[in-house]
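The instructor's notes for this session suggest beginning with a concrete chain rather than abstract definitions. Hand out the sequence below and ask the class to guess, before any prediction is shown, which regions might be ordered.
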Amino acid sequence: MTTRRHPTLVAALLTLALAAAAAPPQPPLPHVVILATGGTIAGTAASSTATVGYKAATVGVAELIAAVPELASVARVTGEQVFQIASENMTPAHWLILARRVNELLARPDVAGIVITHGTDTLEETAYFLDLVVKSEKPVVLVGAMRPATAISADGPMNLFNAVALAASPEAVGRGVMVCMNDRIDAARDVTKTSTVALDTFRSPEVGELGLMERGRPVFYRATTRLHTTATEFDVSSLKELPNVGIALAYAGSGRLEIDALAAAGVKGIVNAGVGDGSLSIEAKAALVEARKRGIVVVRASRIAGGPVVRDGEADDDALDFVVADNLSPQKARILLALALTRTSDTREIQRIFRRY
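After discussion, reveal the predicted structure:
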């Protein structure tokens, strides 16, 4: 017995088949490479309710990717395990390795962007270093988590999805290195960790975030105006190590002990994290003047979370031959000073660099 098809149904099926055949092929998804370095996003704990006391950097990059199958909807994702460390163990030597690998990958025409998984403790420092030395306009996005992968409501998977979606977006091109966590998009220069425990710890309190992630796509509200990536003068392609720069933290009664110790250790630069507008105690000022006479470059920064350090404000920087950090945190001023010292030891030039970046 044969079944007869209704002519109208046959015509409809034929129309659908012809339409499908005539539809243009969909462009391939952008290729995003995830470079894993460890951190809490790759951490595990004995209990699903443990959000402290866990072991960081135990989950490999392949497992991180497999845990978020939704990544396949926004990008073609591959991964590399560059390091497997807690971020308190991140060093300038790690930065140089990471920067070279990022630049190698971004030079490939098949790579659209990079995501770097990272522990949150020093994430902002790695991000700012890369912002100054990456030589591509393609997106580079750092991402981490405040809860380990084994937690009931781990924030890592959504953070990773948003970071990959951001790195894959054409709208993210040319915006410098970014940090993407808790749906926020922040510029590497401006972002800082503001809470030891909160999920929305990464903020840009002085100038605000660049934008937000909304349903897997970025919505930008502003752009950073300081020079970054392809517009910088720094080249670490053949650099074996960064100049040694230390930070001296000021506090009531701190004196000169820390400054003298750094000078004796042979540092090339000292960032003094002063009180208020980078104010110097009598003893600290004397120690820094001596350090400068020994050829050590001195940068006045502030331990305060907001506001710039004004040149010739709380100290006669012109007469003392000091540099001011503008509104960079001491830890980011240290990075910029180290890179500046790969170019020059002229304090006037270094001050120009601090104004530009």
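Then share the key points. The chain has two domains: 31-46+53-231, 245-356. The domain at 245-356 is CATH 3.40.50.40 (Rossmann fold).
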